[in-house]
## 1
Amino acid sequence: MRFFNSVLLLSSCMAVNIWPFSLGVENISDTILQSLRGSESKPAAVGLVTNQTGCDQQGKRTVDILCQKGIRISYILAPEHGFDGKAPAGKLIEDAIDAKTNIPIMSVYGRGGDYSIKGKRFDPVIMKQIDLICYDLQDVGMRHYTYISTLLLALEAAAEHDKQIVVFDRPNLLGPHMEGPTVDPDPAIRSFISLVSIPLRHGMTVGELATYFNKHILKKPAKLHVVKMNGYQRVEQGRYFKELSPNLKTVSSCYGYSFLGILGEVRPFDVGVGTSYAFQTILLPDTIRVPAHTWARLRSLLETYEIRSTHHALIKRNQQYSGLRLHFSNIMQTASFGLLLDLLQFFKTAGVALSFSNLFDKAMGTSLVRKLYTENVSRQQLNHYTKKGLAQFMKQAHDSFLYEPPPRVVLPI
């Protein structure tokens, strides 16, 4: 581990677990079940926000679990990537019908196919046709992944239309680390990938985030119920993994996404998107002619973050790329934000010209990181901003944590 301090020892996460682990969708109580069913004279109409990640540990779909329990699903509400999780990032999602249940699938990602908030709020027409919302999506653990933005808008819609919302909780795939900057209030920064000011790597479950949003973000709180997991201690990460989206098909890709997801917004890097090793590579065009000893020094840097690496090459868009493929052992030993900063500094020092995309600041939640490498912002200024945001967030969010131990704040040095 390198360049971070923690407020709690990792060993505190390793207490003996006396309860068998189960997901929220596996813990539906009779009381919640009755609310979801409604009455015989007026069965409840449910809008289910889910996709292929919504399933139990045996792979049974949440929509099928609820239907078999006598719950009437009126609409499946699909996030970015669609109900099957196969649509590319940022692409338009078409409405459809679930072949197995004949339930209509409606997109709540919007028609715009971009990362603006416009068009992504829940359709008032649909909200009038349902009695409550259920939410069951697996988040990756990073603020800029849009499933938690959809969660916020689901809560907002439930509050606005006076509907109940039930969130089935799931683990945070990246474990307990909470690190990186919160979101700057600058309107130019806010987007669907920086919709709310939480840490970049938030360390929370979707149930905890829903609780936080409801208590501290919404002007009018929704009638929220979180169906908690049993036996969760923030170390259950990928043992029942279901691919999240086209480029997050493995646990390793999720681990890499924690820092390569944003490095991919910097040219000329290629992080494997569209290949079998998405978010598991750091590659540069061969035209840049990076010396072998530079890659060797990068391998040493990665090892300080508990990441092994091997040589990797590919041809993409008629261009030869070379670099490293990353192999992760324990993401809880990796400070993702600190590593991202070190990677950018490493390549800048090596003479690689960095070009930041328009999405970089939005995904990061602040322009300070980009300006650290392009203008006169100092590491001290960035660290002060980051530490202040983390401290303020942790103080406010402590009443939203549903499991012990709480997330661990990781501070850059």
## 2
Amino acid sequence: MGTPPRVRQRRAVANDERILDVAVELLATEGWLNFLPSRVGAEAGLSRQSVLRRFPDRGALATAIWQHRLSPDLSRILAELLSAAGLLADESGSGSAPSATSGTPEALVSALQPLLNVAVPMRSAAELLVIAHFEPALHEAITGTLGAQVTAWCTPGRHGPGPVLAAQRAYLLEQGLGLLIAGRRPGIADFDALSAATQLMQALNSPTEPVNLPRTPAKHLDERTVPFDTGDPIRDLLLQAALDGVSEHGFDGVSVQSIADAAGYSEGTLWNRWPSKLTLFEEATERHLALGLKANHDWLQNVTSQYGQGVAEAVHAREVQRPTRTHLRALNLEQARLAWHHPELSEGIELQLAQFVSGYQVAHPEWTVAEATTHLHFEWAFGFGAVVLPLLHREAWRLPYDVITTPMSRSASEPSA
């Protein structure tokens, strides 16, 4: 006798669930490079063919775990974050404007916990939010689920929120999504988030009226050719080719051969200068960030001197989120993703961030070390959130961010109570 149909059906459903559970775990711990049907099958106690019959490639498997495991959870977490701040009357995103007392710092800290202390499912969600920049099918799945919800929350209109509320929601979502991307740093459990949450709630409760933002262009963000100037012209070309390749295909999707070809040199020429693709990209990233930070600092200082810090930060958000700058955003996120899986990259980031903590304490002597470290973490994470949001809401760059960046800049310059 064969296996009864109902027994076979229950077994098939159980195997489906097992595959999805194992896939989430594997993606969180080993990343996209090792997210393979053969690995998932082995971890699930099933054959590779059994997995492939259900999901023909890893893109299909990634789409399945996003739709059935990750998107519902992340959507709920973000809705709870908006609600904790008093920015969401209901999950449709069309609720009335919040009252100034409807959110509290304590509630905000509680809602931020899943994004500050990132568990396995949300680690997988973060991985896919980055990889979606290089995988069209996954990109479509994300924009059609969480993206549709975020767009509804943050699109001003007659049947949606007003411009101020839409911008406030977008800003808080950027903070939350940024914390998700930055959530693998060591020591996060010891951070004191109440001070940062208090500052954020003060700004949310004191929005300013939107102003016409200056049209100041951020031409340095369009510079695809980086002036590396290492003293070795061949090295400069290979570094540039590495950045270009990763921004278009992701680190795992670009080969050493394609990088060498794009630079116009042999693969051997590349190997003579770097022992691995990772060390090549690490150098390219360090040099690119150093040059980019200086150019960005100079640009922000110029805009701030003319219009004030709050307006400058709003203009910067607009410029970073423009639809024409997808490659810039993809590169920024891929640099963060690689640090999750390569301790040597993560250690370098930690050393850089540690140097800023003392500066925060000089500016705010009332802060403890934990508070200063947390404020730095929030600020650093926000930069990642600003480049994630356009994946979910293509028109985010049009929002009047000054309604929140202006009060945020004022509260940041004043000692906390």
